Amino acid sequence: MSGGLQIRDLTVTFGSERDPKPVVRGIDLDLEPGRITGLAGESGSGKSMTGLAMCGLLPGGARTGGRIEFDGRNLLELDERALTKYRGNRIAMVFQDPTASLHPMLSIGRQLTDHLRVHAGIDKRSARERAIRTLELVRVPDPETAIKKYPHQFSGGQLQRISIAMAIICEPEILIADEPTTALDVTVQAGVLRLLKQLCDDLGLAVMLVTHDLGVMSSLADRISVMREGVILEEGPRFDVLRRPREAYTRGLIEALPNHLPFLDEDGQPIAGSEAAR
Ligand SMILES: Nc1ncnc2c1ncn2[C@@H]1O[C@H](COP(=O)(O)OP(=O)(O)OP(=O)(O)O)[C@@H](O)[C@H]1O
């Protein structure tokens, strides 16, 4: 397969050689341009470790095995110097807490342009123009004013849009979104999800959406992998997995949702007849 990113037999292990603690145990996953791949599962199932492995950001002491194929290379074999060429540049991440990727004391414009100048090496004026264009793309109102402001002057939803702008400003091919709406007010969640879908479609981004929330998955993911205790239990097109789950574990996740699943469409609206999924 060309383009995208392929994970093959990925393992992540903590602990010592004599007393290993495997947390990801031989998973396969494909990220394709213009597609959203969902990785679902309960807390502790290994979702975040999978995302962090793709960016070379695993905590110290983690050992890896298998392959993460991108750009004809196995990312797991790259040293830190080689990885910095990819991380934040061609492979970007959005986290649950947008403030984690933003400095509180620096203006939004400064952060966006610094990021761009480090990774893309472009001059100050072009960087400012690109920052404004990117804020337009993520629909932050009045970008010319927004670049002069500081993180605390924005709402949570706007901050998440800004952290998405930060992630995409270098035009990455891969975007890993780890619980991108979990910390947000429900009223703004649908807008951020819609934005991710639009960016995926318009920019041809290969998105990996990591979330425990199958309701979020239902509105967005093209395919869903369900993970438990470091293993992918089942994988398939979203409505196959959500409507006809093969595994009792997946059924349990669906049934555990409040009111079962309010399956949502791309606009975050409940899908008519979605009770058929119950
Ligand atoms: N530094 C570490 N040392 C040892 N074990 C760790 C370390 N970091 C995470 N783990 C373990 O790895 C497992 C997988 O964690 P991971 O964060 O990937 O789960 P998750 O599915 O993303 O859940 P959550 O949504 O809670 O983050 C967990 O059992 C966790 O305790």
UniProtKB/TrEMBL annotation:
Highest taxon, organism lineage: Bacteria
Keyword Oxidoreductase: no
Subcellular location: Cell membrane
Bilayer topology term: Peripheral membrane protein
InterPro entries to which the protein is assigned, alphabetical: AAA+_ATPase (IPR003593), ABC_Ni/Peptide_Import (IPR050388), ABC_transporter-like_ATP-bd (IPR003439), ABC_transporter-like_CS (IPR017871), P-loop_NTPase (IPR027417)
Main location (coarse class): membrane
Gene3D superfamilies associated with the record: P-loop containing nucleotide triphosphate hydrolases
Domain ABC transporter residue range list: 5-254
SMART domains to which the protein is assigned, alphabetical: AAA
Keywords recorded for this protein, A-Z: ATP-binding, Cell membrane, Membrane, Nucleotide-binding, Transport
Alphabetized Pfam families for the sequence: ABC_tran (PF00005)
Listed GO MF terms: ATP binding
Family per similarity comment: Belongs to the ABC transporter superfamily.
Protein name per UniProt: ABC transporter ATP-binding protein
Native source species: Leucobacter iarius
Highest classification ranks of the organism: Bacteria, Bacillati, Actinomycetota, Actinomycetes, Micrococcales
